[in-house]
Fold each of these.
Amino acid sequence: MSQGHFGSDDLKTDSQELLSCLITANHILHNHEILDSNGHVSVRNPNNAKSFFLAEGLPSALISKAEHVSEFQVEDGTPVNSAERIEWSERFIHSELYKRFPDVKSVVHSHCADVLPFTVSNVTLRPTTQTAGFLGNSVPVWDIARTYSSGDSSDLLVRTPRSGASLASSYSKSAFSAGTIYNTISSKITGSAPDPTTFPDYPVVLMRGHGFTVAAKGIEEAVYQAVYTKQAARTQSAAMLMEIAHGGGIVEGKVDVEGSGKIKGGKLKAAEDLHYLSAKESADAWNKFSEDMRRPWALWKREVERSPLYENELKSEVK
């Protein structure tokens, strides 16, 4: 299983290579409309697990050099360089996930429009295609309103360690969660199940009215899961609309028919006949697609390298 840009804790990665990879991740995620002028991707420092790198202050498409990337402390989200100006208030999304789960190596936070409807409706995001098997049976939705204290801004942004810690806690669920599927797959591949205290049950959590966040084992894996979370949402939405157009819906509740032929008192519920992946299908699909994250990464990397929009000044410095 390809766990990402670095595959084990004892592998020391060249900092220039890692930052170049992080810049490329920003470009890929923008190219796939996962990130726009907002949103961010980070990577844990493989040479110092107590810090992480996050590109700051610019839209993802415009990140191009080492000076655009800052290093932060996992413990409290403060910059390693105390003199550095802090641009992103939502760095606590990253710091708290890294703090809670030592085996998380990369985090993506997105405001993707295709996913947003699932954060504000009663429709649960579920995998309908094999590329989204990592989602498991369903994807939880976290609501920041539960974390507000007196004086907090109610703008839905994760501005405090308290809110970040609450979000991170939502990645841990019961034995019947999607995490069971995810961790069972890892167990089959590596020979031992991930410790639930070091890696999350859910790889993806939706954020009410805000977006979604991916917690993964490496940059490539995080990018893959972000791209295919978007595709899963788009596919499910399109399929549900097709079902409604083809078969209409079901009227539920007490229905009173007036003399004029009008119906009152009932509610129209869309008929949901979609074929979602079973638990075994999800597990087997992720087992297959997680074997090598470098395959899709190689294509996506070439796409952004050939686009005049994206610049990566570190690329030429990496052998």
Note: Residues 65 and 74 are 23 Å apart (CA to CA).
Amino acid sequence: MLDKRRQYHSDDSSDEEEAEDSTAIPGQRAQFTVGLILDRLPSDILEMFSWQNWEQLSVQNFLALCKKQKKLKVIDIGPMDQELLPVLQKDPDIFKNMPELLSVDMYPDNLDRLKSCQKLLQDKPNIEYLNVCESFIYGEDVPSDLHDSSTRPGLITRTLFSHMQPWDKCDPLKLKNLDLDTIDLRYSPDTWLKVIKFSTLVRLEIRNCPGAEALFARLMDNHASEWPALEAFEGLLDTLTNLEDIHIVVSRMRALPRPSAITHHRKTLTSLTVHTEKDSFNLHTYSQEDFGIICIQCTELRQLSILFPEVTLNWLDKFLSTNFAVFLGHLGKLPNLITLNIRRWPSYPVPPPPPLPSNPSREFFDSYQSTLKNMSETYEHELQRITQTIFESSDVDAKAKGYGLGNRSRLSVVAWGGNGKSRHHSGKLKQIPFIRGLKVDPFGQTSLLAVRTIWRMVQFAEPESDILNHSIYDLHDVHESQGL
């Protein structure tokens, strides 16, 4: 590699080419490191291997992984540095020789990867978990017939499940978990519902899928061609029974699902996310009465992510008379709540930063950056104060009503917001989590303290906090999430 770089730099190349080569070096080093690790690992000890799918994986490393780690239970097929199918055709039994493989994550970004995924499905018809995320949108050429239409199946379905045709007579996949991301489901009754036996599913996750109401309506045994999205989803919740996790994150929906559709699962429901919006500036919030119904009936909830009413942080001493305080009061009806994610960022009125002059000096820039940093620190400090109040209120409720852990409630994590921008705060915000901590005074007395932490550390402090993953993880934004 060093010799090649010497030869490259001695050539009369443009600065642009040199810059492109230098950016490729970290990726080459990563592939070399992964290959070295796979080569040194003992055979058949890995159960799971996952690769960040916004970077290409070396085909040679993928083949080495499959051949040496035959006890893998989870595998990814995503962007790679060269075509995979021709290599698989030279070793047609590579997937068949992995007897314990049960979970597959597919991120097809071109036809070669799509056909490679089809080969895996054909060789492993007994998988239990399938995740299909359409990734053609990140490539240069997006086929016009990628998704199903009224005239024929789209490129994705007719390629992935080509070995199962004719679908009307096929033996459908009997999955336990199915995740679909960025798949148009408007005509899914003629494709997905034929190749997958939805009645065997324990978990179904649908993200960024237009036309999902058609799937919901057919799962309800309703054969109408048109079905309003909200009613279709509510009908699906009414049809299903004993759900443990419900995560609803929907854009362009005219209202929230009615509380009775959620409380229908009150005996088993332990994790609930509800976040719908008409557009970026019109977010739906449950009324005090509806939120109270959910809290009163769904007493088994352990994780909750929901939009609270607006609150201004510097009203901390007065907000008990606001709608926000009423929502907090309803939380006292959830004796098992461990993780709370309040999706709406509180507002905090601060003076705007000084305007930029036409010829700013270095001193001005230093002062400007210091002002922005102070604004951010002040905002987080106010968040900590209100989070402290939430923890303390939950402990008071637990002691008064005799639930929790004796001297305090079970509430351990309070997280604010998710990815994106806030209309009330300059700059781009990330989810800000706080965990329950302790402070010790000079006399050795301990008291509660809300401790700001980073998102990646929350899972170590409290295992039952995976609902935050639904709230924050966004593939399109992950490159800018390094600080979380």
Note: The chain has a mean pLDDT of 80.
Amino acid sequence: MRPIFVILSTLATLLSLPLIRRAYLDYQGWYNLGAGGLPHNIFGWIIQCTLRLFASRDTKSTACYESGRNVSELEKRSYFKAGEEISQRKGKAPETGAWVAPHRQLSMTGSRKLVEALEAELTNIYTRNASVLESKTSKIEGGSPALFLHPSIPLNHKTFPRSPREIYHVHDSEGSSHGIFSYADAKIVLEKGWGERHGLSGRAGGVPSTYLMIYSPRDEEEVEIVGKIARTAVSYGVEGREIK
């Protein structure tokens, strides 16, 4: 082999090492989040990397809810009940992962007790409203407990294409959750600091622009607030029907 080819080959190897290390660390970080929607292996990571190319870096902006174009009356409404308005979340927002699938909270995660309390809130919502809801495992995330619009009710609003009737789910691993909200309520939740838009919300894969992550509760008071937020998603998800 000619010396020039040896030199070029060596240079290419040396230049690629930082990229290989960066990719390896990204894969490890993604893998350590646990399963959630995509195959939990190298192929799932490659799909995630492709999806991430389309993700928004600004997940706190409410500008997409301002125009009101092509928005139904159902989407314009707020579903927070009188007296159940939410306060401003205290402190800084938690760190969330750069990955879009799964989309997870990395800091300020809830204790096992608080996660179970939040899951109990979801169960209570279902129990009181079983005529309009189904309770089963999330089709978006896989192992997460979720609420769905009852199959007897016609579907007339924007939903997640992969799981059209899914309304809200909780991530059992760290207590954050995802839900689809009305435009009005998505704006309220973001302005009050209780969550952020999914990176693909309104950008790719048919993910609704009001598909939000709600941060994990840090104490029992926040479990109650996140429960209120979940109920607004459910009220929107059942298309304005009375929620007990």
Note: The two ends are 78 Å apart (CA to CA).
